[in-house]
Amino acid sequence: MNQLITLDEFIFDRQADFPYASGDLSRLLTDIGIASKIVNQKVSRAGLEDILGAQGVTNVQGEEQQKLDVMADQVFMKSFLNGGMVCGIASEEQEDFVAFDNERSMNGKYVVLYDPLDGSSNIDVNVSIGTIFSIYRRKSPIGTKAELSDFLQPGSEQVAAGYVLYGSSTMLVYTTGNGVNGFTLEQSIGEFCLSHANMKTPPAGRLYSINEGNLLVCHPGIGKYADWCRQTDKSTGRPYSGRYIGSLVADFHRNLIKGGIYIYPGTNSSPEGKLRLLYECNPLAYVIEQAGGRASDGYTNVMEMVPEKLHQRVPYFVGSPDMMDRAEAYLND
Ligand code: AHM
Ligand code: MG
Prior knowledge:
It is built from 10 helices and 13 strands. The protein has helices at 7-14, 24-43, 49-52, 68-83, 103-106, 148-151, 220-230, 248-258, 277-290, 321-332, and strands at residues 86-91, 98-99, 110-118, 129-137, 160-166, 170-175, 180-186, 191-196, 207-209, 241-242, 260-264, 294-296, 316-319. The chain has an 8-stranded mixed beta sheet, with helices on both faces. It has a 5-stranded mixed beta sheet with strand order 10-9-11-13-12, sandwiched between helices.
């Protein structure tokens, strides 16, 4: 029987990788694991809550039932607030960042940016969704309240990032800059267990993921790249397969493992695209880079961009390095 390594054991074993480690980042990652187990529990009951709750309005505790993405946002925020390692958070669900004002949190070294439930339009139809998170060391002095500048850091400054995929099984995948490791939730013991050690993406793959409905309203180079993917050529394994779930985390995770490229381009009506730089693009860029892939806006590594606002959007290309090279070449041609 293989040795079972839980997420918490793994995090604490790896703590020595950081010469400056005080255990705070380890504790923070553990908090993320706990929050995602709570969210997983709620997500797995999607569809039942309305039936089991009183009229779908209040639950047995008399609390108003919330939409799952708002609920997930609150679960993660409370976990960061209670954990005390974080001086503030920014979330897709909240217009402004939140600076925690209790003494313990103000002494926290880190800020977290997150998308609590990405792909949430898929909840109603029981399709995989995810959480994405990004962790930075704060810029403002320890002991004070978090400031906007703590959150507007380029992705290259991330100290950890990852995602949780609520799929046919629930997985937590993260990096702290020493490779990528994936943990599958073993429901019977309620623990994330190491299942995908040192994940690497193949240099090239046979999957391309794009909302084809956008092909006529985006840069023509992207349509030409999609045409190339569809052409038959045995020497390059084409035609490639089109795979698009519409849940970034799920599309990203599949492509990471099997080899592929995900593209969400700027369109005529939304030149900046749809995805948010700080809590969707940068964290997954850090993960894919640590797994041997790349991410860009078609021209520039997204992690080199200096963000100007919390909810900044950016066109997004992410995946296996050889596929990225070719897709970018079509864009630049
Ligand atoms: P969300 O954060 O509001 O859920 O939006 C992000 C999602 C991604 O998960 C997904 O890849 C994309 O939006 C799908 O968008 P579209 O339906 O336009 O293809
Ligand atoms: Mg999202």
